[in-house]
Write a structure and sequence with these properties.
Elements (H helix, E strand, L loop, with lengths): L1 H42 L1
């Protein structure tokens, strides 16, 4: 019983870590894009 629950917990943690990684990646990309847009607007 304990092994099965442990495996479920680790799988849940992995899913949380993946979601967090995707979320931070998206934030970083959007932040970078907005920064580039500001740079282009400023250079014009």
């Amino acid at each position: 019983m304990k092994k099965i629950s442990d495996r479920g917990e680790s799988k849940g943690m992995l899913a949380v870590a993946m979601v967090a990684g995707l979320w931070f990646g998206l934030i970083a990309v959007f932040d970078h894009i907005s920064m580039l847009q500001n740079h282009w607007m400023g250079s014009w």
